[in-house]
Design brief:
By secondary structure, this protein is mainly α. The chain is built from 5 helices and no strands.
Length: 131
């Protein structure tokens, strides 16, 4: 495989690993410790099913590791400060898409609604500066 193949494989494997680790985290968390705002995780798995899924996640992670080693994929170090900048950028893009001028594509807003929501979005943008 050439360098381009390895780069896309490495990137995809890293995303798969992140998703599997997040899912594993959700499976082992105490449901009472989840303090979410806009969603609730329904812990609808039996103990046996949960154990089975966790086992499959571990097997997948091990297989990704094995294939990565076989292909000589690099371990990318992600600095926490860089991760913070990435999350800030993602939040900024999402909030920009919620500006009233963009929401008008979904229907009209009154001037009062638009101005109030614009101010709320701008406040969130200011607060989202995590550095």
């Amino acid at each position: 495989m050439n360098e381009n193949h390895l780069r896309v494989i490495n990137s995809s494997f890293r995303l798969i690993e992140e998703e599997l680790r997040l899912l594993r985290y959700e499976l082992i968390q105490d449901p009472m410790s989840q303090k979410t705002i806009f969603y609730n995780v329904a812990y609808d798995l039996s103990r046996n099913r949960k154990k089975k899924v966790l086992g499959k996640i571990e097997a997948l992670l091990e297989e990704l590791k094995r294939i990565g080693a076989e292909l000589g994929l690099e371990v990318v170090e992600v600095n926490l400060s860089k991760r913070i900048m990435i999350v800030e950028s993602q939040i900024w893009v999402l909030l920009e898409e919620l500006e009233p001028k963009r929401l008008r594509g979904y229907g009209d807003l009154s001037d009062k609604e638009a101005e109030k929501f614009h101010q709320q979005i701008q406040n969130l943008v200011r607060m989202a500066s995590l550095n």
